[in-house]
Amino acid sequence: MLETRVWNAAGSQHKVRQTRRGKQRTEGVLRMAADLFLKHGYDQTSVDEVIQRTGGSKSHIYREFGDKEGLFLAAVKYLCAEVQLPIETLDVSKMPFEVGLRPPSQTLAGQHLALQRLVFAEASRFQRIGETWFAGGPDVSHGIFSRFFAQAMQAGQLRRAEPDLMARLYCDMLSGYNLYRVRPGTREKPSPAAPSARSTPRSTCFSMGMQRSGASRSEQP
Known about the structure:
By secondary structure, this protein is mostly helical. The protein has helices at 20-40, 47-54, 58-65, 68-89, 97-111, 113-122, 127-136, 138-154, 163-182, 193-210, and strands at 2-7, 13-18. 67% of the residues lie in helices and 5% in strands.
């Protein structure tokens, strides 16, 4: 038997004992629910549709997630982890700074847009959703870029600055335009490739401003 932690709509965890097969079934339900929530939103996604596509029963979903809101919260947590995983596992330590900056930037800009749209649409109804997204999304991204910038500064590739601040500014550069596009009321939805394509000139611009070409004013005597 395996022990799994699941979340309910109130944001609290409880432990569920599962067989390996049961855990696989729960993960399949979560993947399908996440996909449906992304495509159709909260109101247009039903527990019945998730069950129809994955098998199982309502009792299984309610036991694992509490209710539809609990399933939604778990799906957002799952999507946050899915977006961050490719960034966390990238090894750019041996690349020049600008080259190493591009892959995580493209991954973040390209995969996060649909999730932002979903969270922004539902955050006013479900406060816990916004908190979950921020803790598992932007906060994690800031930490990843902060560590990357700190390493580059130690290696002499970047001017000395506060890594955390630089990470937040850079993430704002990547996501700022997209945040306007995902706000309710905007009709045009950018193609999935558009955010990734826009991330390259932004990473180049940031690199040009931060790369060390000589002493900065604060370092000059």
